[in-house]
Amino acid sequence: MASAAIFSSLRRRRSPSLEAFLAPVDLSNAALLDTLRAISMDLLLSFSGKDKTPPYFQVKNSTSLIRKIQVISVLLDAFRDLGFSKISTTVFLCLKELYLLLYRSKILIDYVKGSSKLWLLLQNQSISGHFHDMNQEISTLLDVFPLREIHLSEDVNEQVELLRKQSRKSKLFIDKNDDLLRLKFYSFLNEFENGRIPDRKQLYSFFVEKLGICNVKSYRDEIEFLEEQVVNHDGDIEPTASVLNGFVALVRYCRFLLFRFEDEDGELGKWKRRTTKKGLITREIADTFITIPKDFCCPISLDLMQDPVIVSTGQTYERASIARWMEEGHSTCPKTGQMLVHTKLVPNRALRNLILQWCMANGIPYDPPENADYSSESAVSALPSKAAMEATKATAVLLVEHLANGTSRAQTVAAREIRLLAKTGKENRACIAEAGAIPLLKRLLSSSDACAQENSVTALLNLSIYDKNKSRIMDVEGCLGTIVGVLRYGHTTEARENAAATLFSLSAVHDYKKQIAQEGGAVEALAGLLREGTARGKKDAVTALFNLSTHTENCARMIESGAIRALVGALGCEGVSEEAAGALALIVRQPMGAEAVAKEEMAVAGLTGMMRCGTPRGKENAVAALLELCRGGGAAAREGAESSGAR
């Protein structure tokens, strides 16, 4: 019997056009007949057994195919009675082809039964075509099958001959009612495309009465399935990824419009256990634990490239990094050392698209600069359509309304859904902020409900990824202080870590670095998280401290808050040592910073050890820190460096 791995495409819920029609065969002798009978019996039981689950769509096509399998099953029983020794080579080859046919039939039937209702509706014509192809294959196989070589009973011969005639005459069948529903689904999207919100009664009739999508879980499943199709989308499949994004936004809007926020039935009680979710919903800051492909990282900054560009030598760099390199007066390629014959930077669209697809597949936020040139069709096809944007705006308004006026439970659910909606796409983040979510999320940060607090701070983290939202967050009176409060006293570890990550995101803006450092307890709390936090917490803390260190006026705060001691201690901690050395390299540029670092007993030893055994970036940071330390840290620092062998 075919292994379970062969059916992995069903678990991934991909279209059958690739996997289902390229099934491998490696069977011989009597095992072939046993396998054929097992597959055919499995197919028949899926429709007639006690646990049968008939498909919601493609009912006539599925039933017709199953009836044909019944006749084939009768033929296989006749072969079993004859005995394998009486089967010629020609018949055996035909049976192998029959195996392929049954295998593909099973994949197709399972796919129809296991897919989302809305996806089946969108693919109605395409899947109907697959069923028609199966009919044609049955007809072709029976035309070449040497039945005269086999002494079958008259009854079996008649059934097979009738099947051959029916298969030859069969025509493509597309259920008109199903297709009308498909067109209705598109009409709702067109309403949003034209700036109108579809009528609530029509949406209820379509989703609840006609499709039977009548609870929150069903909507979640449908949304998740469609999102997976966006991630796994092949360019030649309709609808396009952009249109699919529109349908995802439409279904999400209907989920909140029709079922509001009180039908979660225990969903909030599970929040602590739901650190990950199947599909697109993974942990925020997922790139902390995901290995980024080397080719996606800038050779200068070693970070994931947002706007990759090609220089004259053919090497690719992050635009901001190579531009800064050139502005500093360098005229050579950082990686190859070759002379740059010109300073023109050519966008590497192919690599940017690959990075975008990789980020989408791994649930990592990816916001290239707004002026990035997206002329590639594959990139454009994944961007939200106007319909998606309008549906998302309508959803954001519903969420914010409940965030403002709903019960405590409804507010918590709304915060969670904003968190998830803001996880991908700057358009989503912009819509949510423009709907007025940020002040209301700030209010929830002080909630005594741990779930509400965690979801609200994480929602702010996701919103802050969009540059324009950084100022919106900082402009809300008391918001920064409340985020720091969550960092210091948050109910859960994840809330405290995400508060640190939010500070890191906000500190990307130079004008906010000093403001964050001056906020009471902020730097102290980051230092504490760097000393005692989890691996993820330390990563969030050290990156935030690194950003704050880039502002020269923050040096005094880094000293008095204990951040320098925490950074020195982090030099020996895998995963954060590079950033710790980088922050120290910035701090020691200030005389008071160099003196403070020199007073730490393990500073020189830690930097020397990294210079010898660290990563390329770590070594660079360590050398820079040691150089400045020897210049400004006094005789004791120089002697310590010499005794450690740092020459």
Notes on the structure:
The structure is a single chain. By secondary structure, the chain is mainly α. The chain has 4 domains: 4-174, no CATH class; 177-259, no CATH class; 287-379, Herpes Virus-1 (2-Layer Sandwich), CATH 3.30.40.10; 507-647, Leucine-rich Repeat Variant (Alpha Horseshoe). Helices cover 65% and strands 1% of the residues. It is built from 33 helices and 3 strands. It has helices at 8-12, 16-19, 30-48, 59-82, 89-114, 117-122, 124-144, 154-169, 176-193, 200-210, 216-231, 241-259, 319-327, 349-362, 377-382, 386-405, 408-421, 426-434, 437-444, 450-464, 467-475, 479-489, 493-506, 510-518, 522-532, 535-549, 555-560, 563-569, 577-587, 591-598, 603-613, 616-632, 634-643, and strands spanning 308-310, 316-318, 346-347. It has a 3-stranded antiparallel sheet. Helix 17 runs parallel beside helix 20. The N and C termini lie far apart (67 Å). The relative contact order is 0.05. Its EC number is 2.3.2.27. Pfam families: ARM_PUB, PUB10_N, U-box. ARM repeats lie at residues 436-478, 521-563.
Features:
EC 2.3.2.27, repeat, 1% strand, mainly alpha, ARM-like, 647 residues, 3 strands, Herpes Virus-1, 4 domains, disordered N terminus, ubl conjugation pathway, three-stranded antiparallel beta sheet
Lay out the secondary structure.
Blueprint (H helix, E strand, L loop, with lengths): L7 H5 L3 H4 L10 H19 L10 H24 L6 H26 L2 H6 L1 H21 L9 H16 L6 H18 L6 H11 L5 H16 L9 H19 L48 E3 L5 E3 H9 L18 E2 L1 H14 L14 H6 L3 H20 L2 H14 L4 H9 L2 H8 L5 H15 L2 H9 L3 H11 L3 H14 L3 H9 L3 H11 L2 H15 L5 H6 L2 H7 L7 H11 L3 H8 L4 H11 L2 H17 L1 H10 L4
Antiparallel strand pairs: 1-2, 1-3
Helix pairs in contact: 3-4, 3-5, 4-8, 5-7, 7-8, 9-16, 11-12, 12-16, 16-17, 16-18, 17-20, 19-20, 20-23, 22-23, 23-26, 25-26, 25-28, 26-29, 29-32, 30-32, 31-32, 32-33
